[in-house]
Amino acid sequence: MSGITELTLQPTDLRRVGHGLARPENVLAFRDGTVFTSSNKGYITRIAPDGRQWRIGRVPHDAPTTMALADDDSLIVNNTGDGNLYRLQLDGKSELLLDTIEGRPIGSANYVFLDSRGRLWIAVATSTAPPHGPADPARATGYIAVLEDGQARIVADGLRWPNEVRLDATESYAYVPETMAQRVLRFRVTPEGGLTDKEVVGPATLGPGILPDGIALDVDGNVWVALLSGNGLVIITPEGRTHTVFDDPNAAGLSALAAQYDAGAIEFPTILGCRGRHIQTLTSIGFGGPDLRTVFMGSLLMPHLLSFDSPVAGLPLRHQHRPAAPPQPESELAPLDENGA
């Protein structure tokens, strides 16, 4: 396991990447050190290795959350504002890609992932419209879908807020953080691209008030899990053991969230109230750099990404078989502070 269980960090060990970011919830990292991240201002921010930032395009309802790079250098993004998927060109042009699955509105698409065969995996947090108000953690209306050859189909349903989907090295298994169930799931991928044999990876629950969000896999088969409410990072080994790399817990916030969880009505401000002193509401993990040993993490609240070096490489994603990010067409430079006027 390359000593992965010996990896322990303090908040002061983490580097900051980017500046003035607005809800950089998702990260898409490249081998040349470029990182794309989402923004609740409606556009994608591109951060160059030298720190320059570009603002790419705009999608309706101003809520792109996650992205995948297609072979034509366009970005496929999900939009939590209306729950749909869009194709965003690097020059800023955008178009609707998908708004229904099996004849019904998507609901609240929350994540997109392209596999080696070009299939687009979609995690949908809930089949209803983008949620407002309290969330019932026991409500199992989330699902996983696959878009292939222009047709979208549901491959797993009855899930409690699935937040992402990642495939292993052979694309034989799919890993899904089930946020409202406080756990990570694994499915076997069938030859037809379906999902079956659901099982829990690691502990049955990550602990009172602890909500997992984004995940990533490394080349040794470890599952890296960002803790939204725990402000931390844990690794689940292939043997099922859980190792904490770092965390910055807010005891009072977690207690309040656990009480709402037990009552069946979680308020979004309560999740945000779990922010730590140094680290706040982590949501995503991406490996980048030449050897895929540079970790980047996004969040809901911090105006920058976090980064550190890993002793083990991340599992290469489809876009990481190229040596660098695609060239950037002429585009407006991002402002120094996206939260400014």
From TrEMBL:
InterPro entries attached to this UniProt entry: 6-blade_b-propeller_TolB-like, SGL, SMP-30/CGR1_Lactonase
Domain SMP-30/Gluconolactonase/LRE-like region span(s) in chain numbering: 71-249
GO molecular function: hydrolase activity
Keywords per UniProt: Hydrolase
Region spans: Disordered: 317-341
Keyword Hydrolase set for record: yes
The UniProt record lists the keyword Kinase: no
Protein origin, superkingdom: Bacteria
Similarity field: Belongs to the SMP-30/CGR1 family.
Species, as recorded: Amycolatopsis pithecellobii
Protein name as catalogued: SMP-30/gluconolactonase/LRE family protein
Matching PANTHER family: LACTONASE DRP35, LIPOPROTEIN-RELATED
